[in-house]
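Submission sheet (multi-component)
Chains listed below:
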Amino acid sequence: MAPETVLTSLISGPGVSDIDQGTGVQAIHEPTRVRAVVEQVSKSAGQSLDAIPQTFLFGGMHNDVLQIRRPIPLRSERNARGISVVWEEVSEFGHGDTFSEAVEDFGRTIFELYRSLLRDEAALGEDLLGVRRKLEEYIAVRSR
Amino acid sequence: MKVHEYTRIENKLGLKTRDAGDRLSWFEHEGTVYTRTKRSHGNKDLPEHLIRQQLKLNQKQFSDLIGCTLKREHYIQILTEKGIIPKPSPKQGTGTSDKSTLT
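Outcome: structure written.
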């Protein structure tokens, strides 16, 4: 439920009175009721308003060898194990206890993936050849 | 996913790693690498569904893999059915390149 909906449902009933019916401003007189409103709105806001972006562009490869040719679209997800950032197109992810850790992990993983798929020119199946082509679109060797 | 569960998958499928410190593990069949996934770094748990997607398995198949009923041969069969590993042909090899492998 959205925070404003929770608030609307809570600021009615006993212990609540209208101060100004014209503007919709209301007063809550009972302390327990105030506490309940604050708790409910905080809880609801915590569920719906996350400081971590659901989608974002990754462009900060901290690497001496590789650089980002164009930003990589990632989505983030919370799970019981922590936070993951996922590059859907190539099914690659970074994972960590925090958002920063997950992004950092993603950068290191992408470096290793690139190194393995491009530098070594290994024998690859079609699926991984597709990953390699996609990596070449987004990542390039840094010119010295 | 616990570290020991990942290690079990690694052993069962014969996943290979390039260097000791690397995060990626590779599934190779007849000289060609078809899938890869990511090892746990340190003792951190990894998100199971993301590893499952990298290995191209559905939930049931992945549970079987962790639970010991799905073996390497069956995994090859699954990847072949999905078209990830080309079906064996007497005149045609399976890989797209015959250069050096990742191991």
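Remark: Helices of chain B lie at 3-13, 48-54, 59-66, 72-81.
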